[in-house]
Amino acid sequence: MATVILHKKNKSDKDGILQISFYNGEGKKKQKSLGIKISEKHFKLYYNKDFKAFRKNTEIDYNKINITISENLGDDPFGKIQTDDLIAYIKKRREIVANMNSKQNITSLLFNLEKYMGQQKISVLTFDMADMDFLVGFKNYFVARGVQGNSIKMYFVVLKSILENAKESNLYHHNLRSLNKKVKVETEKKVKELLSIADIRKLMEADDNYLYIQPIKIGLFQLFTNGSRISDALLMRFENFDEYGITYVTKKNTKTLDVPWSPDLVNTLLWIWNLPRYEMPKVIEFNPHRPTPFPKSVVLSQEERNQMSYENNLAAVRKHIKSRKKKDFVMPWLESREILADYDKKMEFTAEQHKKFAVASNKLRRQFAHVRKDFNLDCKRLSTHTFRHTYASLLIKADLSIYDISKSLGHSSVKITEGYLSKNFDMDKKIDIANKLRKLIQ
């Protein structure tokens, strides 16, 4: 058992050094310094003893500290994990990993390992049995099930890391040098993951009775909230609304982002909440008994109609927001997911919350595949990330700078934005560049 403590030389000191206290269950205790200085105030405010990690915040480098804690929690000053059972060893490693994503990856690996063992009629998997032939067979098990190459690669990255740890403890003796070559899999080629303007219009005009209407509404919400990530879109609450639009902190990197009101965002919200959308008529008829100097009717321009419709719809959205509790989810389908009801973005997911959220995200991915096929969309793949990529692509076509696009998306680096744009650098853009070059030469 291990826990993180703040060690201070004197009780009156405001700062201390983070340490890990190890207990062997027999009354013995050993401590290991992490060499990280932190104030008592920040320790009490942000450290969560249940997760053995610091909450997300903007005052300390919580991510770097959590990585250091996670790397050292696995140490055992009373002796390494001693077992010849690979499955038992992996379960023990999972217990001492702090990061929930890593825990989930190990859990998925265990599930598939045990399923493969069942196929092979293996009751106990020892380290000696996990040789190269076994690992190749495990890879073929994934291939036969139609698991994508990128997912297989992830499983073996996790498994290799665990086996290398076991090797350091002198538990695993097989050579891992040829592992990458032996279990090499074909990863998916990058495909166009952008919606055309025609695609977007098709989705905006989808029938409310369509079987997979929910993912369409969520995707358009992502698009019109400046390409928000699916994790932020699904976890958006009514407390994120304000007078000017939406303000929220991203789950991934704790960036604060503002999304102003817009006609498309307002219309999408009304659609999500099944509220009627108001459309201003072309002609406004007045009381026929008005005095003669006043006109009996007024013909509105399209611009006037659009503006008046937007103002009426925005008023309807604001009225609905006031009628809801601040902690309610914007997406009504999440209200029944009680496991997420008390989730705070400053915290990491619990194992159960992570599992529930992953189930919801995976369900959306499967539904998007049906949407792409049913609407005959131009994009080669429709996923929970497509709307974010599309938003970035539309901004570059509108001649916005890559710096502005990066800030709008909440990226921690412009390089990430460059990756977005290079992945979907389509033929139309290449033709446009060629035409501009030709004009310069002529």
Automatic annotation (TrEMBL):
InterPro entries reported for this sequence: DNA_brk_join_enz, Integrase-like_cat_sf, Integrase_catalytic, SAM-like_dom, Tyrosine_recombinase_XerCD
Keyword Transmembrane helix in record: no
Signal peptide: none
Keywords for the protein's UniProt record, in alphabetical order: DNA recombination
Ranges of residues in domain Tyr recombinase: 190-433
Tagged with keyword tRNA-binding: no
Annotated protein name in UniProt: Tyrosine-type recombinase/integrase
Organism: Flavobacterium qiangtangense
Lineage of source species: Bacteria, Pseudomonadati, Bacteroidota, Flavobacteriia, Flavobacteriales
